[in-house]
Write a structure and sequence with these properties.
By secondary structure, the protein is an alpha+beta fold. The protein folds into three domains: about 15-65, Roll (Structural Genomics Hypothetical 15.5 Kd Protein In mrcA-pckA Intergenic Region, Chain A); about 75-135 and about 230-245, Pseudouridine synthase I, catalytic domain, N-terminal subdomain (Alpha-Beta Plaits, 2-Layer Sandwich); about 140-220, Pseudouridine synthase (2-Layer Sandwich), CATH 3.30.2350.10. It is about 20% helix and about 25% strand. Strands 7, 8, 9, 10, 13, 14, 15 and 16 form an eight-stranded mixed sheet that branches. The longest helix has 10 residues, at about 25-35. The protein is elongated, with a radius of gyration of 21 Å. The N and C termini lie far apart (about 45 Å).
Length: about 250
């Protein structure tokens, strides 16, 4: 039986964009969801791309759950504290980063930080931007202040700069420098990808334990003036910067 497309209203938007507005995921990811047949519009399965919906009138569900789009995209920077998990919820009742960002709209973190890693963590309900920032192909710079349990030897600094072989390939920082006055126990490391536990694994491979790990910048944004555990909205200029950086805005 042929399925009829939902009505097209004057305020209609493409279904994949509607889902991105709602924070479900990037448009590319939403296209995959649509093709898989888990998206319904007004009770009818929609598995073809290009269908349009009206955010104010049509009822959209994904896997049976109602999706409500927020027209206003939100962009937030949190100075993440230690012992907070980068998830929306935790089945074991541990603190998550959502404990610190108290707003009514649905947002989600861009990428992840380990439980014990502190520093810059972005949140948004802009699915396209979140995907572009987190995807390795974007080569978005992340700067970390690494505190080691002992002095970093010069030969190991050279190995670090040349690239360290890990199980999932060579990790080569864009920059790696000793922090002056730290007696060679603190290092600034800049990476252009977001592999799981990458910084910690790099130093483990060199034979060092990481005592503290703090992300001091992400995509050029810093937590300057923001106490640990506090958050703020990004400025318009900062959002434009991120969109230009990811090619979403020329």
């Amino acid at each position: 039986m042929e399925r009829k497309d939902p009505r097209v209203h004057p305020q209609a938007v493409r279904l994949n964009r509607f889902l991105a507005m709602a924070g479900v995921g990037s448009r590319r990811k939403n296209d995959d969801l649509i093709r898989s047949g888990v998206v319904r519009v007004n009770g009818k399965v929609v598995d073809e791309l290009g269908v349009q919906v009206n955010p104010y009138k049509d009822r959209v569900t994904v896997n049976g759950k109602i999706v409500n789009a927020e027209e206003r995209h939100l962009y937030i920077l949190l100075n993440k504290p230690k012992d907070a998990i980068t998830t929306l919820s935790d089945e074991r009742g541990r603190d998550t980063v959502m404990k610190y960002v108290s707003i009514h709209q649905r947002i989600y973190p861009v990428g992840r930080l380990d439980r014990n890693t502190t520093g810059v963590l972005l949140f948004t309900n802009d699915g396209d931007l979140a995907h572009a920032l987190a995807h390795p192909s974007g080569e978005i710079e992340r700067m970390y202040r690494v505190t080691l349990e002992r002095q970093l030897e010069e030969k190991d600094l050279k190995r670090l700069r040349a690239g360290v072989k890990l199980d999932d390939g060579v990790a080569k920082p864009k920059e790696a420098d000793i922090i002056q006055g730290s007696k060679r126990t603190k290092v600034l490391v800049t990476l252009a990808e977001g592999r799981n536990r990458e910084v910690r694994r790099i130093f483990e491979a060199l034979g060092y334990d990481v005592k503290q790990l703090d992300r001091v910048a992400f995509a050029g944004l810093t937590p300057l003036g923001l106490p640990r555990g506090d958050w703020r909205f990004l400025t318009r200029d900062e959002v434009r910067h991120l969109r230009r950086l990811t090619g979403l805005e020329s």
